[in-house]
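Homework help board

Subject: predicted structure for assignment chain

Our instructor gave us this sequence and asked us to write out the predicted structure in token form, then describe one feature. I got the tokens but I'm not sure how to describe them. Can anyone check?
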Amino acid sequence: FYEKVMGVSAERPAPVFAEIVGSSCTLAIGHSQTVQLFGAGSAVAADNHTVILEFRVDDVDAEYERLKPFVTEWVKEPTTMPWGNRAVLFRDPDGNLINLFTPVTEEAIKRFSGRS
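My token output:
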């Protein structure tokens, strides 16, 4: 799922662990067996409903069209937010919230200039 969202192939250093390396972040994805290494019960899939994974993209509307075939739960279609980002919100297969956004107003673009 995340390989499709981010457009990057995952690296799999172990059968129960994968990393998707982007230009400014690494998304680490572990199997339930991996979580046990951090401590029993330390994480439960889709248990945290307050975290939103956010990814800045070049064109949120194009990404929305690209992802339509395999995203099954859209929370918010592309919308320009009051803080100047155009964003789309959806859930991954485990129910986690994902936000893709593109700064579109002059102020938002300025805020993100120089960030990787």
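Reply (TA_rk): Your tokens look well-formed. For the description, you could write something like this. The two ends are 23 Å apart (CA to CA). That's the kind of observation they're looking for.
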